Amino acid sequence: MTVLAGKHIVITGGTGQLGSAVVAQLLEAGAICHVPNSHAEAPGHFPFAAHERVRLAHNVYLADSPAVDEFYRAVPDLWASINLAGGFAKAAFDKTESASFAEMMETNVRTTFLCSRAAVRAMLASGTGGRIVNVSARPGLDPRRGGGMVAYATSKAAVAAMTVALAEEVKGKGILVNAVAPSTLDTASNRAEMPDADAAKWVSLGAAAEAIVYLASPQNQAMSGAVVPIYGNA
Question: What is the rounded average pLDDT for all residues in the chain?
């Protein structure tokens, strides 16, 4: 499959577990992957650092507006921005400090805002349209499932609202904006942290990546303003 052959795509959080799965599928589809990395060198666990169609940019802090703008300006002919970067925190509400709440908003909401804004600017300037894919989460759509996750659920609800609002604003300009909202992903870290959970009910990285890549591809001709639940068997 080469539906994305030669297309330049940004993947924030691309060196993470879900990010690596997304990058793998994008490369298979022929894309050129631009992956911002907050560290000075590539993480040892990222398997695509030396791939000829992966462009790693180091020391890019995604909550810093000038750094994000500079990174996106260096991407030629941007087709899509897949905004996977984010964080997770869990604590009882009365134990959640103001700084922890602020961190969830910065890590999940501010980064998505800055990257989406930079992507929209690039796409409007090119006049060729493009795709933006954000990541909400099941607690962001169904906060009743967010016990001990008030700050996290609030931040992911904000990402969902941002996605829908932005999709409406850029309607008719060739830019389609969507999000996915996974439940628990079947990752090595989740298995280690929840050894007694039924991982068969979790969402595989491959399945989540497949949905994300579709939304970011030219095959998606009409879907915009959707926040797609990816709940697996849960």
Answer: 94
